[in-house]
Amino acid sequence: MSEIQNSKQYDLEERTFRFAKDVRRFVKKLPKTISNIEDIKQVARSSGSMGANYIEANEALSRKDFVMRIKISRKETKETEFWLRLLDTGDNKELEVEREKLTKETIELRKIFGAILEKSK
C-alpha cells in the first residue's frame, strides 16, 4: 500500500514541478511591461512554492506539519491563479489560451490539495 502512496506522491511532486516549469516558460513570452515584470516575479514564486510545500508535506515530522504544508500548497495555488489572471498578454490569442490552460491546472491542483486535506481529517 505504501508503494502505491509513494507513487501517487511522486506523481503530484512531478506534476507541481512541471506546472512551475510551464509557468516559467509562459511568462518568458509575455510583454515586458512594468506591471508584468512585477506580476511575473509573484507568479514565479507562488507556482514554485506550491510544489516545494508539497514536497515538504511528504517529509513532514507530524500530522499537524503535514496538514499545514498542504494548506500552504492549496493557498499558493489560489495565489498563482490570481497572478496568472493579472498578467497582461497584450491581447495575444495564443498566450490567452496558454494562460487558460495554466489557470485550469491551478484549479485542478487546488481541488487535489483540498481532497488531501479532507482525507487527512
Structure keywords:
121 residues; mainly alpha; 4 helices; elongated; de novo design (two linked rop proteins); disordered N terminus
Task: Produce the secondary structure layout.
Elements (H helix, E strand, L loop, with lengths): L1 H27 L5 H25 L4 H24 L6 H28 L1
Helix pairs in contact: 1-2, 1-4, 2-3, 3-4
Description:
It is a single chain. This protein has helices at 2-28, 34-58, 63-86, 93-120. With 121 residues, it is mainly alpha-helical. The protein has one domain (2-120): de novo design (two linked rop proteins). Helix 1 (2-28) packs antiparallel against helix 2, helix 2 (34-58) runs antiparallel to helix 3 and helix 3 (63-86) packs antiparallel against helix 4.
Q: What percentage of the residues does DSSP assign to strands (E)?
A: under 5%
- Fraction of residues in H or I helices: over 70%
- The CATH superfamily turns out to be 23S rRNA-intervening sequence
Number of helices: 4
| Number of DSSP E strands | 0
Radius of gyration of CA atoms, rounded to a whole number: 15 Å
- The end-to-end distance, rounded to whole angstroms, is 20 Å
Instruction: List SSEs in N-to-C order.
Output: HHHH
Domain unit count: 1
